[in-house]
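hi support,

uploading two proteins for the ticket. first:
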Amino acid sequence: MRKLIAFEHVSLDGYFVDANGDMSWAHKQDPEWDEFSASNAKGDGMLLFGRVTYDMMASFWPTPAAMQMMPTVAEGMNRMPKAVASRTMDKAAWQNTTVLKGDLATEVRKLKESPGPDIAILGSGSIVSQLAQAGLIDELQVVVNPVVLGKGRTLFEGVKDKIGLTRTEARTFGNGNVVLKYEPAR
């Protein structure tokens, strides 16, 4: 069975977007972080997005500016198969994208049971919240950024039941980011 991995940035006070829905605070670059991001993009995986995150990603990664700024990441983002969960979208313009229109948990179970590489959720907080509550996330990779936002949306907004986690790894970067990896406590 394919693993479902959520890769998420949060502020030190626990928000994944600020009060305006912005995430630009999460893009503090340095050579070590850039190499980490590029190595992730070189992998063979499938990407899963909610509609809002998909629209944001699709408006940037296929552009010449993305290829110039981060060529390895842009190549990976464009090459990898993608799925977008949307009740209103009929067709996706970004290459290698499938639209999931049915019940989210049901559609993701089908993806996990089908042959293929692991699946990574990038951003897409409402998707993460729903799939965590459904017990479908196999690994959570949280990037804690050294910034306090004061207001915003939390990553697990809407989760009603406690979800126990076990930390499996931690890594600190020169730009102050800390990547924490967790698996559901079983």
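and the second one:
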Amino acid sequence: MRSPAELTETFRQRGLRVTPQRQLLFRLLHGNETHPTAESLFAAATEQMPGISLRTVYQTLSDLSDLGEIQSMDLGTGSARFDPNVGDHHHVVCDRCGQVRDVHVDTSAALVPLGDLDGFRVSQAHVVFRGLCAACDRRR
């Protein structure tokens, strides 16, 4: 994801509104490796700007996703997660606490289908590893 200043400029160039609320969300997402939900971003934003609306959070996430600045993911944790890392990578999800982390593994060659997919052309593949994070595993 580009820097908050670059996102501000991109939004302006595309005719999208740039508000203090959106700029706050750009800052909260920049470098964020927690794969936040809209609700967790809303909670963090509310601490700094009590008047922000959940609708603003969702609309900003949608616009960022449309621009290719974040990935929206359904990892089976109950809410969509948002990842500002749009580079090639996979994820590991803790089945107990829901923590999500990036995993960089070269799995592309192993994921290429050996057989015919009935004319379906694969453009990308994502792997989600599931298990227990270190903290949850210690509590077992």
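thanks. also noticed: The domain at 4-81 is CATH 1.10.10.10 (Arc Repressor Mutant, subunit A).
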